[in-house]
Amino acid sequence: MGKNKKAAYSKQEEEKANRIVKGLFIGLIVLALVIMVGYAIYG
Asked: What are the TM regions of this chain, as residue ranges (predicted)?
């Protein structure tokens, strides 16, 4: 029983980590777009 609980917990942690990575990735893409648009307008 303890083994199964640990596996479920690690899966939950993995999902949380994936969400954080996805958020960072989207944030970086948005930042890159903002920089490109800013450069196009003010550059």
From this structure: 20-42
